[in-house]
Structure prediction request, 769 residues.
Amino acid sequence: MLIQTKIMYVKKMICKFRSVLRVVVLFLLFVNVSACNLGLDFLAEDLLAALGPILASTSNIFGDIFKTHSIEEEDGPITPDLITECLKCGRELARSSKERGNKLVKNGINLEAYSPSLLHFFSPSYSADINNAVEVSHEILSSTKVLQTKLCACSDVTPNTFMAFLENQVIKVQDPTLGMPSTIICGNAKYRTTDGICNNERHPYWGRKGACFTRIANPKYGDGIYSMPLARSGRELPNPRTLSTRLFTDRCIPSRVFTHANMQWGQFITHDMVSKAMEVTDEGGIQCCLGDGQGVLPPEWLNDKCIPISVPDDDTFYRSYGIKCLNMVRSITAPREDCTLGPAEQMNAVTSFLDGSTIYGSDKKTSMKLRSKKNGKLRQVNKKDSCRGFLPSVDDKSASCDLRNSSEPCYVSGDLRVNQTPTLAMLHTLFLREHNRIADILSELNPLWSDEKLYQETRKIVIAEIQHITYQEWLPANLGESYVRYYRISPSSLYSRDYNEDVNPGIINSFGAAAFRFMHSVVPDTIMACPSGYNAAYLHRLSDHYFNPSILETSSEAFDDVVRGSVSHYSAEADPFVSGELTNLMFKSYNRWGLDLIATDIQRGRDHGLASYNDYREICGLRKARCFQDLAGEITQDRINALARLYECVDDIDLFVGGSLERDVQGSIFGHTFHCIVAEQFYRTRIGDRFFYDNGEMPHSFSSDQLKEIKKTSLARVICDNTDGVYYVQKKAFELESTYNPKYRCDDYEAIPYVDLTAWKKPILDLFD
Ligand code: HEM
Ligand SMILES: [Ca+2]
Prediction:
């Protein structure tokens, strides 16, 4: 039956591809690059702009291919020979650009240790499979650019019509180094894979680590392929730092509803679902600014992946430190699944499923390193003065953290960003403990289970808890209960039966690079520690604790103090005010200044070629604005005036900027456009995940007794079960304590229900299933 379905599927695919206008499959294996022989003189300007200054010095190495290749009318503009030549040349251009980047670093253009710019990279080196995919995507982009330039010069294709023209072609670069078999047979596995492959049996690569982000609007690059977008007039878009200071003023208005933990959970699940990574050289991070940021590097020293943010001379903050440039580097790109030529698509470096990848990793190698290989448990570090485990230490602390001395902790977990703030590391630690607590109970219930069986069963329960807390507790609080029900984001009955294998669970580019980043506004400027009894509060400035989680371990009570603080302290209001801790001081380390997260968000949206705010209004069912005043339904007059002063045209408004300025939808922290994108993403993340925890009637489904237990969990319960001295928590830990949401004792199992794992006790024979 299964085989028949697969044969049907293959037949369907063959038909589909036959109907495509033209199929040119080219294998780049063993291409002799020295044969690349392009006369680039006539296209130098355009191509140089897109591919960087490297060509200024190397274009003369290419010969005369374009001149020798005449276009035969009857062949149509694209002939196999032309494609071969473009691909060869694209490969050579990509290679030269890479070599130049490496040379620049060798010549001393590299980032200083402990600089905000280096910390921003998290880990400036990637695994071989990611590096290979990035290289192939560079070849694809350069080849697409060469083809565009050639066609525009020799036929009636214009830069504007090129993309539409290309959509009707299937021109592939099939590179064996990608190592991804084009067909893959997924077994009927009981557990999810670590890298997300085979979650969807018909589209095995959907949602995997290393996939491209998906799009709900066509990309808008300056040249249609990869260059940074421009205003409609052809001029530069407004400076991202200016937009940040003028529109996202430095203020932290305390939320009257949400706790710090609400913000922290948002970042925790972000890191489970999304991770863009930045381009690097073989030697590490890329420097784009002179010295400490005194200006942008001159073109001859600038890596072509640089997109530095200039700081205006009158900047009220950076002026005092002489900072005129903030380092910023393009996100890595990935080949499309079918390796076709076309515009740039960015890569997601983690599994897009909400599958606990922050705890377990998004690849087998990482996940194996994190396991203790005994009784299904994860590695943990035990301390003399605490009964509970802590995350293990990373191999190279100095490369991952900003420590004052080497005895301070710096953790390793499933996600590289774990040390970014102490409260993020706190959530990682709570779930490490939750995993090991559950593994202990399961091994007592089923003493004959192997390490592997215990690990997989425990992981399945922990992932289910993370999904339940997100969909039943966090999303209704942040998106509004009624919306969550209306959009079928949250399942209501015991089992869901709406898994849909046609829904791609990948991350929508505009979700990761714009909409969900709106929650940067809810980050408060302080972290709180509360001693037992909640009768005092110690505040730590966020900017003093980036990449240094040591406040979790300064005493035997320190961890619990930060946990208590996270459910007592407020998060900031969701509004266009953003704390200077993020907009002036992000990752400041020992410096007096740091990076600007909001300017980064705006520049990142452009880097990813996101369509404009106005385009997304239309996609999300609003009227497309023809003038600034048409925004009045969603944006207040003073903000419209500010936008009109900064942007030349209403169509130029960046998605992140316009979406952040909208009034919130009633019951939601987001405005209409971001609400629509965020709701769409969480719908896809649930409906497109075969292993979503409450999917019924699947071979891997929980029994109804088990699922009833899972559905009792809450963040409050996870806190109670995994701390030594937190005795009271409010039932809704994402909301501040109030008369409607009082604190309860952790041993009040009526108020804060307990997940009873006896439903996992199995007859001995089940050992072999
Ligand atoms: C202290 C708190 C936070 C800090 C310091 C922080 C910092 C950052 C940084 C440095 C980036 C990468 C910027 C870039 O290069 O493009 C980023 C990306 C992002 N942040 Fe945050 N963030 C925080 C909290 C949050 C929260 C609460 C949310 C959402 C609920 C969030 C959502 C995102 C998203 C969706 C991305 C894109 C992820 C990616 O593609 O890699 N962040 N954040
Ligand atoms: Ca994931």
